[in-house]
Design a protein that fits this description.
By secondary structure, the protein is mainly α. Among the domains are: 52 residues; 53 residues, no CATH class. It is 52% helix and 0% strand. It starts with a helix and ends with a helix.
């Protein structure tokens, strides 16, 4: 009898209406915070490498963030690196044409403002850059590379460090200084 009762009772029709779940579309190129943080850290390290100083890199980044408050840190870091490497101008600033650029004298030539009747400066007092002997430079570059086991990256870093410490010297002087320091440190 129970079997009959079960068959006589009306059965519910399966519901055809499914509840709709509102899902937000997932962006195709979504990145996690850690990935963004890692990229920012790598860009910051590159900026430090380009500037040669942590403080300078941080100050430049702060200025860029103030200048462009709606841009991301990644964008600001990329812009700074591009500007410092000279690859491109910032996208938001127009480039100047040659006629708009100020004409400057080389740093070694003193700026003199003469009025009519004043004598011109003595040409012997003006320090003109001396042409460098490229043959001697090549010879010193070879010697430095031999001392460093052919590691050009280290050689370039040592020379650029001397350029920061002693600006205004010739390439020949920098090469001599690096070789002298290496010999002194190694006791040669």
């Amino acid at each position: 009898m129970k079997a009959l009762e079960k068959s006589n009772t009306p059965q519910k029709a399966p519901s055809t209406i499914k509840p709709q779940i509102h899902r937000q579309p997932i962006p195709q190129f979504s990145r996690t915070e850690k990935e963004i943080e890692l990229e920012n850290q790598q860009l910051h390290n590159e900026l430090v490498h380009v500037t040669g100083n942590y403080k300078v890199a941080d100050e430049l980044l702060k200025k860029k963030r103030k200048q462009y408050p709606r841009k991301t840190e990644t964008w600001c870091l990329k812009q700074l690196i591009n500007e410092l490497k000279g690859e491109s101008q910032p996208q938001t600033q127009p480039t100047k044409t040659q006629s708009e650029r100020p004409k400057t004298q080389p740093e070694s030539i003193p700026k003199t403002e003469t009025k009519r009747g004043d004598p011109l400066p003595n040409l012997k007092d003006i320090k003109y850059p001396k042409p460098e002997n490229k043959h001697k430079n090549k010879q010193l570059q070879r010697e430095l590379l031999i001392m460093l086991g052919g590691n050009r990256e280290v050689a370039n870093r040592l020379v650029s460090r001397q350029k920061q410490l002693n600006p205004g010297k010739t390439e020949f002087w920098y090469l001599e200084k690096v070789i002298f320091d290496l010999k002194r440190d190694r006791g040669i």
